[in-house]
Structures are given as C-alpha cells and as structure tokens.
User: What shape does this take?
Amino acid sequence: MRNWKYIVSLSFLICLIFTLPNFAKAENEQKEKFNAGEVILEHILDSYEWHIFTWKGHEVSIYLPCIVFNEGKCYTFSSRNFRENEFYKTVNKTNSEELVFTIPHEGDYKGKIVIVNADGTQKRPFDISITKNVLALFISCALIIILFYLVTKAYQKRGEKAPKGLQSLFEMLIVYVRDDIARKAINEKSVDKYLPYLITVFFFIFINNLLGLIPIFPFGANITGNIATTATLALFTFFITNLFGNKEYYKDIFNTPGVPWFLKFPLPLMPIIETVGCFTKPFVLAVRLFANITAGHIVVLGFISSIFIVAQISVAGGVGMSVFSLILAIFVDCIELLVAYIQAYVFTLLSALYFGMASKEEK
Amino acid sequence: MELISPDFGYIFWMTLAFAIVFFFIAKFAFPVIGKALKNREQKITEALEQAERTHEEMKNLQAKNEELLKKAKEEREEMLNEAKISSDQIIEEAKEKAKQEANRIMESAKESIGNEYKAAMTDIKNQIANISIKVAEKILEKELSKDEAQMEYIDKIIKETEEKMGDEKVR
Assistant: This one.
C-alpha cells in the first residue's frame, strides 16, 4: 500500500514509453480494496520507517531508530521490531519490569509508539525517535548547509567578480530577500540584525518545499507540510519578534496611541487585543504554510489515486484515467513549484514585517 | 487529527536542526556573502561614478577642442583676409607707382622733345641768319654788274640756300 507513490513515479516515466499496462499490474497486486483517503494521509503523515519501494512482494524500507524516554529512562530500538511483531518487549534493568511498546492502528495514538500497560491502557512516552520526517529534515538541513558552504566558498574564491553557477542562483535569492523583503519592511538600522534569520527561513522553507515535491528517496517527505515544522518556524519568528522588540513596540501593545482612553481603562480592551495579536500572528504563519503545502500534496495524490479508484472498476478505465490524471497531476505539480516559492516568500515577508513592527523607530 | 497535532519529538529535532542551520548561515555563510555583496555593490557604484566623471571630462574636453578648432578657423580666415587686403594694396601701390613712373617718363620725354625742338629752332634760326648773311654777302659781291645778272644771281643763291636748307632739314 505504501509503495504506490513510488510505483506511480516510476510508471510515470514507463507509461510514456511502454504504454500503460504497468498501472494495471500494480493495481492487480493491490489485493485489498483501495482506500484513497488512507493512502494520501499515509503519505502526508510521519512514520517510523521509510518505505522506499516494493520489489517482488518484498518491501524495501529503511527502519529508523526509535528513541523513547519513559520515567527518566531511555530506550532505543529499531522500528523493524514493529514490522516483525506487533509488540516490542523490553526489560527495565533497574526494577526488571517488562515494558511493552506497540504502534496502535487506531485510537488517539494511531501510528505513534505507545507503552501498553498491564491493564491494557496505552501511555504515550516522551518520543524523540528519528522518524521519516526527522531523517528527511536532517538530509535537507545537510543539503542546505552544503549548498551554503559551496556558495560561501565561491564568494571567497571569486571575491568581487561576477557570480557564477550556483552562486548566481543563490545571489539572486539572497539579494531578493535582502532588498525586496528585509529592507522594505525593516528600518535601515536594524535590518542587518534580522537578515541572517530571514535568509535562513527563506531557504529552509523554499528548499524543503522543493524537496517535498520530489517523490524519490531520500526526498519526498512532507517536511514543510508538517504542522510541527511550521509551528517551530513560527515560534522562532515569535520569539525573535518579541525578544528583540523595542520600547516603541511594547508601547504600541500595552498603551496603543491614538485610541480613546475608555478602550484601555478600566477594561484594557486594546491591550488584550494587541496581546492576542502577538500570538495569532505566528499561529497564522504556521497554519498558512502547513495548509498550503499539505493541500498541494493532497491534490497531487488525489489525482494519482483517482487512477487506482477507476482501475478497480475497469482496467481500461484505469488506463484512460491515468493519462488524464497524470496531465492534471503534472499541472498541479507545476503550480506546486510556484507555491513552493510563494510560501517561502510569504513566510519570510510576514516575518520581516513583524520584525519591522518590533524595531520601529520612534517618531 | 494527527495531521494537525504537532509531535513533540519532531519539534525537538526540528528546533535543533533549524538552530544548527541558522547558526551556520548566520555565523559562517552570511558574513562572507553579505560582505562580498556589499563590496561588489560599492565597487559598481564607484565604477559608475568614475564613468560619469570621465564622461563629463570627455564632454568638456570635446567642447574645448571644438572651441579651439573654431578659433583656429577664425584666425585662418582673418589671416587670409588680411593677406588678400595687403596683396591688393601692394598691387594697387605698384600700379600707382607704375603709372606715376610712366607719367614721369612721358613728362620728361615731352620736355626733352620740347628742348630739342627749341634747340633745333634756334639752330635753324642761326643758320637762316648765317645763310642770309652769306647771301647778303654774295649779293653784295655781285652787285653793280648787271641788273639782270644780278637778279639771276640772287635767284641762284636763293635756290642754293634753299637746297642747303633742304639738305639740312633732311638730315
């Protein structure tokens, strides 16, 4: 079930060369009834193993390490344990108590490692496992660092000469973030302070958005379409905004100028609204990025799924549908490329605007 | 539900990874890139300013050259004019001089002719007087012999004298 995205991406090329029986074959291998919603969610959500493809009925996956803390003790084991058995049993060495880990298929903790207590109740431990998204995150961060390292080296080597290759691509984007985002939103004095963060955020989101569109290992994990990623980025923006906010900024919040006194006293209506605004701003940032990227992935997956839904009814219909769906999926993928840039831009721009508000100069 | 509930473990790794990336870019990459960009921008600005200045200088130089050329042309014209005027003057003067010389020569020629004439007349007068005296002498010599012969003789003398005179005139 998990493999079909990769089968599709392969078939994507093959179908153009050898017509389309591959799809029908892949479809025939699916013994259970095809559930599009489940499949799509599986691809958008995180998992403890990274499924790469299925070869002659064998699943080829990377089993990632699980790191779990329970009552101050750290347990590490491979997620392969859950592939072979439903439960993974281990013994707490201090009190020789047996701990049972499992990944439930339903309930509140669906798809997450839980500890099964003796009475059958489930308890979620503190879980910092290297999941698929975490590994993908590490890979993309390493990629970003390598790219920036190469670009930095290029700058050191070429000095003040015109940029070349990768350097010119990065320069275009860096200069864009600097001139059209940061310098327009933030005043001259404080712009240098915020610029490294804005550049980091822009490239982090942009590169991860792009990598999310590549369906082949080691990319294709849904990093920026994960609410935890966007929430973390938004929290960074939130903390930077509020920690580096100047007097003027806090005066605007707690004693908003140009507002009648009865909105501030006895009931501090405006301060409350402004304070809530401080929190809603990053919240909106997080939700916007998450929703945009997830929606894009869902739409692409939906078009691909429609091939299999139709193919369940008739193989010929599936073949016909695949042409139609692929065209639409390619179209949406192209839009996603655009969205990848736009969302990176919007997140960076709004962050810059908040920083600009927080470092406003006194009139 | 899982879709919109952030997983804490992931947030932990995300914070760590993002912080590392941020640290790398803020501490190592951006200072170099930012400085290089700033330097290049400054260099370009300077180069543009320099070009502007050079352009201005060129313009000034050209204007100067043009002015110089114009001046030279004017000078040449003036010189030519002057030369023409002076040459005309010289010719005029030469003509005038030639005329004067010619006049002077004519004058002197006239004068000398007049003088010659006068001299000739005086000579003639003297001759006539001499001849007359000689005739008178001759007449006086042959006097008294015969009237007729006398007359004949006078005629002869006169003729002779006339011939002499004629000869002299011819000469």
Remarks:
- Chain A touches chain B through 53 residues (CB under 8 Å).
- Residues 132-358 of chain A form one domain.
- Residues 269-313 of chain A form the longest helix (45 residues).
